[in-house]
Fold this protein.
Amino acid sequence: MGLLSNLLLPGRLRTGPTVLLPAKVKPDALLEAVQLADPTAAQDGEELLAAGTRIHAPLELTADLLRKLSIEDEERLWAYRVVAERPLPMDYYDKFLAAGIAYRYGGWSLCEGSADDPAEDDSRLAAVYLPEMPDQEELAALLRGLLRLPEATETAETTEATEAAGTTAEAETEEAEEAEVAAAEETASAEAASEEAASEEAASTEAASESAASDETTPEAGSEAATDDTASEEAASEEEVDEPGKSGLVVQAGQSIVYTGADIQVTASYETRFPAVVAGLLPYATEVVRIAVRALEDGELEGDDLVLEPGKVALALGSALDGPVVDAWGFQILEAEDLLPARRA
């Protein structure tokens, strides 16, 4: 039986999900980490039970066995199999649990024959979970403060100033027109005397107009030019609308509400399946709101700031809106530094 188990072991580990760690973790420390994903996680002998999954006791893998798993650069690793035993709180929860453990201990997640490093995952984010969707304007105002963006009232003030200037100009124009009418009445006799000269001038103007008309572009060409100008203006306008800009907050409302500003994107949406830690904190919820905070791929954030800055925003939102904050794998975070991966020696 032992021999059969050893023969089947590489296949089981390869199928996964399996956590591969460079060092053996103390059971108490591992339990403490897993309880960030499921507060009800508990020890069962040498194994752990968490949210419908069983984390098996660690197995020492030597170089020969690692070669069978296509891992060439390591001489010794410790393997923790993560096996689903009951319905999971969300799809692929066992995979998320394995990746979250590997991320915290500088290891790899082995699943379906592929050993992946969660620290290289581009989808890393922090998410706030709430029982209800917050008011759109309230959330936008909160984000402007957290991202240190200008208030939306600047546009309104500019519009009011423009309208006031337009009203003043209108009044001045009316006064000028009245003055012109009065002057015209006083010089009526002078105009009558110059009618003959005006007649000659009109004839000259008509001749000039005919000459200019012969040089003008055809109606079709003029229409095409106008269309091209209009298309160019519309394209420029669309570019201005689509470009988020670094000085303001762009809000796109639909099935999800997306806020973009300061190289950070915040997406609020409804979810019917969510991590075990959220289910434990919101026990009666069948649908929750997930506010995901991540760095823009083409933004200027680099290095640790790619996770630290979104993490700070998520924690501030969680504090203001009274909701738990979790990472990409469903582990609760209490500080932005919790989002940083473990450093390998």
User: Anything to note?
Assistant: The longest helix spans residues 153-186. Residues 154-167, 202-247 have pLDDT under 50 and may be disordered. The chain is about 45% helix and 20% strand. The chain has three domains: 2-120, 127-150+247-339, 154-215.
